[in-house]
Amino acid sequence: MNSNNLRNLRNIGVIAHVDAGKTTTTERILFYTGENHRIGEVDDGSTTMDFDPQERQRGITIHSAATTVHWQGTQINLIDTPGHIDFNIEVKRSLRVLDGAVVVFDGVAGVEPQTETNWRLADDYRVPRIAFVNKLDRAGADFPRVVSMMRERLGARALPLQLPIGAESEFRGVVDLLALQALVWDRDDAKEPPRVTEIPPELMSAAQAARARLVEAVVERDDALLDAWLRGESPGVDALRAGLRAATIAGDIVPVLAGSAFRNRGVEPLLDAVVAYLPRPGEAPGAADTQGPLSALAFKLSADDHGAMVFVRVYSGVLKRGDTVFNASTGKAERASRLYEIHADRRVERDELVAGDIAGIVGLKDVLTGHTLASAKDAPVLESIEAPEAVIDVAIEPRSQDGTAALAKGLAVLVREDPSLRLRQDTDSGQTLLSGMGELQLEVAVEKLRSRFGVEVQMGRPQVAYRETLTAAAEVHHLHRKQSGGPGQFAELTLRVAPLPRGAGMRFDSTVVGGAIPREFIPAVEVGVRKAALAGPFAGYPLVDFEAVLVDGSHHVRDSSALAFELAAAAALREAVLKASPVVLEPLMAVEVITPADYLGDVIGDLLRRHGHVQGQDARGNAVVVTAHVPLAQMFGYIGHLRALSSGRAQFTMQLSHYAEVPARAALAA
Ligand SMILES: Nc1nc2c(ncn2[C@@H]2O[C@H](COP(=O)(O)OP(=O)(O)OP(=O)(O)O)[C@@H](O)[C@H]2O)c(=O)[nH]1
Known about the structure:
Shape: globular
Number of helices: 16
Protein name: Elongation factor G
InterPro entries: EFG_II (IPR041095), EFG_III (IPR009022), EFG_III/V (IPR035647), EFG_V (IPR035649), EFG_V-like (IPR000640), EFTu-like_2 (IPR004161), G_TR_CS (IPR031157), P-loop_NTPase (IPR027417)
CATH superfamily of the largest domain: P-loop containing nucleotide triphosphate hydrolases
Binding site for GTP: 16-23, 80-84, 134-137
Bound molecules: guanosine-5'-triphosphate
Mean pLDDT: 86
Domain Tr-type G: 7-282
Helix content: 25-40%
Family: Belongs to the TRAFAC class translation factor GTPase superfamily. Classic translation factor GTPase family. EF-G/EF-2 subfamily.
Structural class: alpha+beta
């Protein structure tokens, strides 16, 4: 294994909106690359990538899975990611460590909300992409329309490398615009390679026009090619490929391919395109220097019968089996006992990992998603992955008393594995609340508690995860002194609170000087403030987006203790918040409804009744896409209403837009 930075390797993800066909496409990739000898199907629950029983049963991807395959001498580490918004953190984690992505589009629906969200995430992480327009065998599939949607909705410079031959059930192949030839799959049989043939005459002029646009886009960003082109020389296929590769890696162009994964058409050229146009490690924009000391990012934890495995991406240096490494995020030493390359249904043990590798490590004890592994304790920490905000809570309890310990253990593991799940205790009822991004995510978590930890769980009704915050500053003075007096019972402090911008979280500071409060008690003040903020004094919801500053205080040489300061700070915070004009915040969801025009009036009327604000309406084929902001509290059970009012024909998706102050009417109802 050499460690130069241009290994013949691609680290790519497959991303899309739910149901666009990522898993179906990935299963074909495993088959064509020889990893699997038969094709797993989503619809009969036999997929290799969605190996979790819940994934197979629900027919959706929940976890991202990493798999190594080889195509024409190139190693491809492939990550299949979930499309459902509830599992979005998995997409973020994956994009953070990938060098390129294949974005799968449904040939009928085109750009869907989750494609858009994932596309923007890929923009943030500067991940070069190629697009695969799938499901071209379906009725209503429209390749040119999907390409225009990519341009309009995603602002992508989407350029087809292929044109489909035949439409809907007649879809049978593609025109390769670079080679100017046709690839036809005469049958659905995946074992039969495509037949290379002439371009059908009726597609010739369209193919030439599309090729001319492609050539233009490539030559205009390459001086040498442009000069030749202006002299009337058209560039050769190899020069065009090289130009396209550079443009794709720079993020200037998104090559678009066509196919039907389900009918086994178009997947081999997609693999060719991954090798031809997506970057090697170290070649991507903003790639780190791959030489130098070890630096790796943990991006996924998984547990199975063999114990815990941590997936890492190595950015620089070498990690050998049995090495002791440092978790630069915690400063602790860790031993990487075993290193594995993960294939569809087996693991291959590796002696060492080098820059560019994505692999599994067994033996790490205290490593979480987002931690940096390095050869030195004080090595710089790689940019971590931010967990999205949780918007929904459910109360959970074991069905029987003896499940209490197992439940606590199971929850602790789930929250470690998925930073977008959170736990807290309701101060009034004492109930355990599990919070997450949506109902589906919480249901899946509860099911895991049963299947992995053997705990039967009683789940309450999902509730909106409200927050509270301040709208003014306030200062309070608090004296904590127990009647009984005695040691450890005295603390006096002045605390000032003030609002911070949305999303800022909480900040604590101390401006106490001259030892009015000894330094060792100041952390206890912060602990008291943080604990009190977990259940805000105004409405009992977590208090966010504020700062608390300890401005003054006094202590007693004998009678003060950390606990006294903690209790005093908690009481002071509660008093201060009530003086600082507190308000309740609620999640407003960005909702997108796709409805046949016949039901448009009813759909909009219903959204307005739910206190929604309609943001826009757009025609999509013979349907209309309505976008609106609606309070999450109004969206429980929406799917049933929408089906009823549209005879089952409208669909919707939603994701968090932002937290906003609850207007007076909702505050009264809450
Ligand atoms: N007609 C047709 N159906 C397809 C094609 N590709 C996938 N499907 C079907 O579309 C459905 C969704 O496919 P999946 O591969 O599970 O989609 P996904 O994008 O992985 O979905 P999530 O993992 O849940 O995000 C399944 O019923 C597939 O059989 C295709 O090319 N043509």
